[in-house]
Specification:
about 300 residues; alpha/beta; about 40% helix; two-stranded antiparallel ribbon
């Protein structure tokens, strides 16, 4: 009787091992914890070369969630919304947010329908839309035209459209929104004070807030619950982008105020990786978020 039981145990063991090997082609059967999100802007060149292989590398690096930044002509990375969602499902990646920089008041409804079909929850405005964003590559500065009220009015309309589409609208900051404009208005303050939190909220980029000389926690305290997603990127001692945990930003201090901020998700991002390949940098950052205590 005991020999029969032992044979059954061994048989079930080998069956389980075979299943694990089969699943490992797409998912991981190791004990690696899948946590956190990645902004695919970090690996934009790799996504352009081979989106399928890059997404698998993102999953293999330990990420669970993704933020897209590759929408054009009704497709995400040259895939229909439904196809893109299917690919993510197969890899165990969850579509959380997407940067939609080409949105206008005229194309918003159709674009939001595509975003919804791809399974995203958050429709993110990455810079002032509709030609309002300005940049000076020579002086490495960014800005906007039209004024804070104009931007707030546009976001209010887009927020209503997103809500009707079953999405949540977020605005993503850089550094210029935290500085006074020519009229003495701090754009981010104006937006926070003059938009409806039921329709418009924010994706706080912790690097750019720090670069602007502002304190994320001070904003959490003044405007609790408004910052639904964070961009987590570090800053080296030269002020450049760095993998998470390899720079100077005190993420533990900020993470302690997660609930106050309203943060539901976070996305690792590194706009430039300099001497490191992007697919290597995302691994280093994933190790960093685990060590810091992000979950």
């Amino acid at each position: 009787m005991s020999m029969t039981i032992n044979k059954l145990i061994l048989l079930n063991f080998f069956k389980g091992a075979a299943v694990c090997l089969f699943v490992a082609a797409t998912f991981s059967c190791t004990s690696q914890k899948r946590v956190g999100g990645l902004a695919l802007y970090t690996v934009r060149d790799d996504m352009g070369d081979d989106a399928m292989a890059t997404l698998k590398a993102v999953a293999d690096a330990g990420y669970k969630n993704i933020e897209a930044a590759g929408y054009a002509e009704g497709k995400f990375y040259n895939m229909s919304p439904e196809k893109f969602k299917s690919v993510l499902d197969d890899l165990g990646l969850d579509p959380i947010s997407t940067h939609q920089g080409s949105v206008t008041l005229d194309n918003a409804d159709s674009m939001m329908a595509d975003v919804k079909a791809a399974g995203f929850e958050y429709f993110v405005i990455p810079v002032p839309p509709m030609g309002l964003f300005t940049s000076d590559s020579e002086n490495m500065t960014m800005g906007m035209k039209g004024g804070a009220k104009n931007l707030a009015d546009i976001l209010a309309v887009l927020g209503k459209k997103a809500n009707a589409a079953g999405l949540q609208l977020l605005y993503h900051n850089h550094d210029f929104e935290f500085k006074e404009d020519k009229d003495g208005v701090v754009t981010i303050d104006y937006l926070l004070e003059n938009t409806d939190p039921d329709l418009v909220n924010f994706q706080m980029d912790l690097y750019w807030v720090t670069k602007a000389g502002a304190d994320p926690i001070a904003y959490f305290e003044r405007y609790p619950g408004r910052f639904k997603i964070w961009h987590v990127k570090d800053m080296d001692d030269q002020g450049r982008f760095a993998p998470v945990g390899k720079g100077t930003i005190d993420f533990r201090r900020i993470l302690d105020k997660k609930e106050l901020s309203g943060m539901k998700y976070y996305m690792v991002e590194q706009d430039k990786t300099f001497t490191m390949k992007p697919l290597e940098a995302i691994k280093v950052s994933h190790e960093g978020i685990m060590e810091i205590g992000f979950d």
